Amino acid sequence: MEKVKPAAIIIGASSGIGRALAKELHNAGYRVGVSARKTELLEELATELGANLTIRKLDVTKTDESHMIFSQMAEELGRVDLVVISAGTGAINPELDWAKEEITISTNVLGFTRLADSAMNFFMAQGYGHLVGISSIAALRGNSVAPAYNASKAFVSNYLEGLRMKAFKQNPKIQVTDIRPGFVDTAMAQGEGLFWVASPEKAARQIYNAIKSRKKVAYITRRWRLIAWLMQLLPDFLIYRM
Length: 242
Hints:
Number of helices: 8
Strand content: 15-25%
Distance between the termini: 59 Å
Structural class: alpha/beta
Helix content: 40-55%
Mean pLDDT: 92
Strand order of the largest sheet: 3-2-1-4-5-6-7
Largest sheet: 7 strands, parallel
């Protein structure tokens, strides 16, 4: 009997890290389900890979609808070994334009939470699985010019830790990984003074390695662990002047 290939669902796979990770998982032998608001980009991805991907249009800010679509994808795949929530947004917003803050919170907090809960409940019923959330090194401190973005990523990291605790108590066969990228060459990399900018492909390779190693937390690329250490060590009077 032919062995069933592992299956993964990636939320937010039309570009950037999500798209590169879809390629990485496909090349590693996964059956891949992908979702995003722009399905034409997902169709292009399927053509590029020469693969029959499970594709769904999904807007994470429409929380009830996103849960239903996730459930449909999981049912179509038959089993799901891995769920990656890569959908996210952010903006440089020193003016505190509410429209920018609102879409960041709606996407990175409400949208993320609904799908993280959907994935965890699915894994609890299935008996195993691996949830991966794409947070950011920005989760570690506040930011005067992008307060909602950094705060939303702090929420993501803390929520993932809470789910990891839940899994530890209720079913150790469920893994939860918090991915904290530094700068990656995507539309999300905004502002001046960017450094150590990784390609989405390099980021995806390191994320997949973290998945295989069942890491609790992984900085992408790995050198950003040093920056994370400094961000937590430096006193406020220095951080506030950056």
